[in-house]
Amino acid sequence: MKKVAAIEDLSGYGRASLTVAIPILSSMGYQVCPLPTAILSAHSEYKNFRSVDLTPHMSGIIDHWKELGLYFDAIYSGYLASVEQMDIVSRFFEDFGHKDNFILVDPVLGDHNRLYPGMSQEMIGGMRELCKQARVITPNLTEAAFLLGESCAGQVSVKEAVEWCRRLSEYGPEYVIITSAPSENNNNVATIAYDRTDKRMWRVMCDYVPASYPGTGDAFASVITGCLLKGDSLPEAVDRAVYFINMGIKATFGYRQDPLDGMNQEKVLHYLNEPLPYYRYELL
Ligand code: PXL
């Protein structure tokens, strides 16, 4: 079985990070090996959440994995809560990254033009360093802006987003995927993806649903990891991830539940193993 090391927090309530990554990657047929960075009562968008920081325990876990001689086909990192954790993850990449496996960094920093609570300028720098070690990165538009020192407070044009995608690839990753990117049509959101090797820019459009669920970025990055592991092309992987998120959002939006509870992924996990009904990707 292919193995994926997943490095992020475990939040007991509200679907995010490991409680999203594990079911998705398991459903796709991979063995997930979590390296939890913290245990939270609920993800950090809930007021008064409690948190146990596992930073002091991460090195011990990593040492044991080294003693066991573990090999991971993919390494996926998501939400990290401190620069110290980012340093540990960077060393993990050096130790466990090989020519034949790949590292995907989801540079979780913020959304909707704002940093998440607890994120700092120093952490943006730490995330930028991790992106340099990755083969694939999956920022949303806000995170792309923070990584590049740009602002997305005003309207970002399609042309600018495409430019940001290319500029991020100069940090090193072969694939840069920007989610929540603008499109010419306000009823659509775009995901754009750049392949630095063949210099092709892809786009997958999707209808806009006026709701926002935490953890959708984590789900997106997890599906991309799974698709690339099975050998999908970049645009195919993006197509499937966009399709999955769209189905998940629609399986949630009709209910009156609190959006903070996240996407009802349990209702749509089976789509991960069904053929895509159609390809939507286009070359930009
Ligand atoms: O979905 C990203 C995420 C992951 N983990 C925690 C979070 C968030 C977003 O708010 O709070 C703890």
DSSP E strands, number:
12
Q: Radius of gyration over alpha carbons? A: 17 Å
Mean pLDDT: 96
Put simply, the count of helices is: 8
| Residues in helix, % | 25-40%
Strand content: 15-25%
Note the overall shape: globular
Which regions have little confidence, pLDDT < 50, spanning 5+ residues? none
Q: Strand order of the main beta sheet, please?
A: 3-2-1-4-5-8-9-10-11-12
Distance between the termini: 36 Å
H and E order: EHEEHEHEEEHEHHEEEHHE
State the major sheet.
10 strands, mixed
What bound compounds does this protein have? 3-hydroxy-5-(hydroxymethyl)-2-methylisonicotinaldehyde
Supply the helix-strand structural class: alpha/beta
SSE diagram, text form:
Layout: E1 3-13, H1 18-27, E2 31-42, E3 51-53, H2 55-67, E4 74-77, H3 83-96, E5 102-105, E6 110-111, E7 114-115, H4 121-133, E8 136-137, H5 141-148, H6 158-169, E9 175-181, E10 188-195, E11 200-207, H7 216-229, H8 234-253, E12 282-283
